[in-house]
């Protein structure tokens, strides 16, 4: 068994990352999703896609600046967010070449239309076609709220221009703050509207089922004030690249065949 695993790993390691990504599909390796022959290449793939920890705005700026953008989930549940200086849609609008925002909150969409924003009431898990194609689709902290994340990604893919990319940000279930909260309180409730956590392996699989390829993913930096300084310093020394230190994951998807 071990020899077969090593052989598979060495074969994959000898190929370029793009070639490997084009051929690896765990369902073609085994019917058993927890066997070592599956888990090893999936883990290796994720390690190859993971980027160094970075600030969210650094990633965001590079992704949206001077691009046409579809922004999904602009109201962020409550219109009070619209008045916040950190409101994501305003940040995008100030930097993108063109932006359309959508949400399922009628009150919020009406509020924004009255203030001159280019927005539409639309369900991003539906079969609707908005009639536009975009260089970038932003799904900021939405995927963990929807009933069907695969349909969400399919909706986003439907609206991609040629060579377009999809950015999905979502909370990290392994963040040290959540773990410490669970240790102290017995459970961690971060948001009553969450229906799932999307870990990197889940992001890879959701993308595959949606007909997309995970191009890369980023670890969003942990704020210094989020945990006790001594704990943060210790973790940085022990595991400087650990996902425990990331408050969010930022996933970037592309259509298969793009380089």
Q: How does the SSE layout of this entry go?
A:
Blueprint: H1 2-13, H2 17-23, H3 26-29, H4 36-49, H5 56-64, E1 68-72, H6 88-93, E2 98-103, H7 106-114, E3 119-121, E4 134-140, H8 149-158, E5 160-171, H9 176-185, H10 200-210, E6 213-221, H11 229-238, E7 246-254
Parallel strand pairs: 1-2, 1-4, 2-3, 4-5
Antiparallel strand pairs: 5-7, 6-7
Helix pairs in contact: 1-4, 8-10
Folded structure, characterized:
This protein is of the alpha/beta class and 259 residues long. The protein folds into two domains: 49 residues, no CATH class; 203 residues, 3-Layer(aba) Sandwich (Rossmann fold), CATH 3.40.50. The chain is 39% helix and 20% strand. The chain is built from eleven helices and seven strands. The chain has a seven-stranded mixed β-sheet, sandwiched between helices. Helix 6 links the parallel strand 1 and strand 2. Helix 1 packs parallel to helix 4 and helix 8 packs across helix 10. The longest helix has 14 residues. It is globular. The two termini are 34 Å apart. The N terminus is likely disordered.
